[in-house]
Write a structure and sequence with these properties.
- This protein is of the alpha/beta class and 365 residues long.
- 39% of the residues lie in helices and 19% in strands.
- The radius of gyration is 20 Å and the shape is elongated.
- It starts with 29 loop residues before the first helix and ends with a strand.
Length: 365
């Protein structure tokens, strides 16, 4: 049986049973996110200075791994600003906020954004003043848009986004919903130890920061990352066709990013699914909603764990007591999804004990 190469229906959202209630704000419901605008912005990156990204990576990992003084944390107040959305999507934010509360070991105050209002900024500013908060955690695009023009006097941390703009939340740091390349490549090596090259097509304005992280991560595993920049869907389709035409099935793989400007779910994805199936070429994705359609594997957010990491980062920023350069890093503690039918077609044997390590297994029984 070939993979599902049909285009998604307009407004189509994958079954929530597919994602066990954890589809992620943007890490599994790409079409819903595009329609509802859940945080799609970019971080300015200098392609000539990948070392800067690596320094930010190191600083980020130090921050979230620092032990938090519990007695000190209890004295702090964390304000969480988040968009109010309908169920079942609201459970995503609820789980993140639960994680923030659990990770902070203290009470938090919440401000729900009901919609877009020109005077919303003034209301938020007044609310923050009344709450006397010490640090802000901002979730989702609407949250970021609501506070981006405020003159914040306290540190801020953002989450629930794939990428952010360089002029968004000056001095803020955050956690992306994009899976960590290290985790993706480690999974690839476990399933296919012979892989030597990974091809990826990307939009530099959105994902140069990720490519800067992915290149050395691949090298450490003996993989050459061949990253090709594209200027839109037409350019991306041409590049993907060239990659699929020349790729070797036993040593090459293709990595798909979650970006509708590069991988159209109705156009480019069906082409990649069909050609890679016929050629028995491994394709993995940063978008877990691709896995039920035939992509080999992906990762998705453990939303409560994401909240805990956001809380650690927020409290660590208070302890650091200094303004940080803005940066965003990949998703830690992600859960994995695999398509066993695709694995079987590719000749990859995944023992039952290994299967149990995946958060989601497709096809669903």
């Amino acid at each position: 049986m070939e993979p599902d190469v049909r285009g998604c229906r307009s407004g189509y959202v994958p079954e929530f049973s597919h994602f066990n209630g954890l589809p992620g704000v943007e890490s599994g419901l790409a079409r819903w996110n595009e329609a509802n605008g859940t945080a799609v912005m970019h971080l300015r990156t200098d392609t000539r200075r990948p070392g800067l990204t690596l320094v930010c990576s190191w600083l980020f990992m130090v921050l979230i791994q620092l032990p938090v003084n519990i007695s000190h944390a209890a004295e702090q107040r964390i304000a969480v600003i988040y968009p109010v959305v309908k169920k079942p999507y609201s459970t995503v934010f609820e789980r993140i906020i639960d994680g923030i509360a659990a990770g902070a070991k203290t009470d938090i105050v919440k401000y729900g954004l009901e919609g877009v209002d020109e005077k919303q900024g003034e209301a938020i500013q007044e609310w923050l003043s009344d709450q006397q908060s010490d640090v802000i955690v901002v979730l989702g695009r609407r949250g970021i848009e609501a506070v981006r023009n405020l003159k914040l006097t306290i540190p801020s941390v953002f989450g629930g986004v794939l990428y952010v703009a360089d002029d968004t939340l000056d001095g803020s740091v955050g956690i992306s919903l994009t899976p960590d390349p290290k985790q993706l490549f480690n999974q690839l090596k476990r399933l296919s130890p012979g892989t030597k090259r990974v091809f990826v097509v990307y939009n530099p304005a959105r994902y140069q920061w990720l490519i800067n992280l992915a290149t050395p991560a691949a090298e450490r595993l003996g993989i050459t990352l061949v990253a090709k920049a594209a200027e839109g869907l037409r350019d991306s389709a041409r590049i993907h066709r060239d990659i699929l035409r020349g790729a070797r099935k036993r040593t090459d793989s293709v990595w798909l990013l979650q970006d509708s400007s590069i991988v159209g779910s109705n156009t480019i994805l069906p082409m990649i699914l069909k050609e890679s199936w016929n050629k028995k070429l491994i394709v993995f994705s940063s978008n877990p909603s691709d896995v039920p359609r035939g992509i080999l594997f992906s990762f998705y957010a453990d939303n409560k764990a994401l909240g805990k990491n956001l809380a650690k980062l927020a409290l660590a920023r208070l302890d650091a007591n200094q303004k940080s350069s803005a940066f965003i890093l990949p998703l830690p503690d992600a859960l994995s999804a695999v398509n066993l039918r695709t694995a079987s077609h590719l000749g990859l044997h995944i023992p039952f004990e290994e299967q149990r390590k995946f958060g989601l297994v497709f096809p669903r029984k």
